[in-house]
Specification:
Elements: H1 3-13, H2 17-27, E1 35-40, E2 43-49, E3 54-59, H3 66-81, E4 85-90, H4 91-96, H5 98-114
Parallel strand pairs: 3-4
Antiparallel strand pairs: 1-2, 2-3
Length: 115
């Protein structure tokens, strides 16, 4: 087992409150399988739907520094080159617009599966 896989397992056990909310209240029982803390290349994705090739990332406050924004943009570009779309939501989105977050995820999964 490599280090990224071990880190992904640890992250599953130490999920943030926002990750737990999205997982337990929506994604865990979603009709198309979605997995959490999945290793793709050199990254660990918060959530991933392989059938739709869709990554779902929840961003806490640490993602809003200039350096982290640059790293996130590089990560997104690399995943896009592999055919993986990345949806990003802030923790605040999950707190204040949970229905909207779930609706957008549902829409993108269904659109990507159709195409």
């Amino acid at each position: 087992m490599n280090n990224l896989t071990k880190m992904a397992q640890a992250l599953r056990k130490e999920a943030t409150p926002w990750e737990n909310k999205l997982w337990y209240e929506f994604l865990r029982d979603y009709e198309t399988p979605v997995h959490r803390q999945i290793v793709k290349g050199r990254y660990i994705l918060d959530f991933y739907c392989s059938k739709a090739k869709l990554a779902i990332e929840l961003d806490g406050s640490g993602h809003y520094t200039d350096k982290q924004r640059m790293l996130d943009a590089e990560r997104t570009a690399e995943l896009n080159r592999k055919g993986i779309e990345v949806l990003r939501f802030s923790n605040l989105d999950v707190d204040t617009n949970f229905y909207g977050v779930c609706t957008e995820i549902d829409t993108r999964i269904k659109e990507r599966i159709k195409s």
